């Protein structure tokens, strides 16, 4: 949940960006940043959020054309890592994925690039605003891969628990539910990536991980995938069907039914 100390404000945009409208939730924020911890502004590169002390040096925005993310698109496959975790190596048909903890949408973009139909669910109005702005720019991206992937993505603002309860037993239930929760850090580290540090400051940590897993297992048609750091234990509850281990992340996969069974 968001930190109680979080205080947001908004300032004037960069030259050339002032004419771009702010998302309604952001536009209602105070313009006085004297007591704020984080500040929004509309820059030439898109809507940005950063800590008040170093907003430009530590600016975070959703950029689906980021070179590092484009590299992921070029090198990701259906039989490795994230693609294999959601079962793309088991089926040739389209897979419907609910990313119930969307964050900055990076994994969702990779899944959409691999052919999935992805619904991104984000409960924070502030992160949702960054995502919405990223979507707006990505629809006109110069890269075909980005435009094509975004066309298979749908952004929704809402609470994952409510959405998962509504989907249980429904014909609208997705094939796969993907959870990338914000785990509390085990130790302080200077190596935390900039965007992860910002998300931790804005979102806080997910203290309902076990509940989310239970609800996801009741709603997913095929499987639930939980992404977790290599140094984190499994979530309390049922053991995963199998785990895919990597240097940066592990994927715990809970299989409800196989993709070979009747869809």
What does this structure look like?
There is one protein chain. This protein has 263 residues and is α/β, with parallel strands linked by helices. The chain folds into two domains: 8-51, no CATH class; 67-255, Rossmann fold (3-Layer(aba) Sandwich). The protein is 29% helix and 19% strand. The chain has nine helices and ten strands. It has helices at residues 24-27, 67-75, 81-85, 106-113, 125-138, 144-150, 160-167, 194-203, 209-219, and strands at 8-10, 38-43, 46-51, 96-99, 117-122, 153-157, 176-179, 223-228, 242-245, 250-255. The strands form two sheets. The protein has a seven-stranded mixed beta sheet, sandwiched between helices. Strands 1-2-3 form a three-stranded mixed beta sheet. Strand 9 (242-245) and strand 10 form a beta hairpin. The two termini are 36 Å apart. The relative contact order is 0.14.
Could you tell me the CATH topology label of the largest domain: Rossmann fold
Report low-confidence residues grouped into runs of 5 or more: none
Multimeric state: single chain
Total strand segments: 10
- What is the total number of structural domains? 2
CATH superfamily of the largest domain: Vaccinia Virus protein VP39
Name the CATH class of the largest domain.
Alpha Beta
Index terms:
263 residues; Rossmann fold; alpha/beta; single chain; 29% helix; 2 domains; three-stranded mixed sheet; seven-stranded mixed sheet; 9 helices
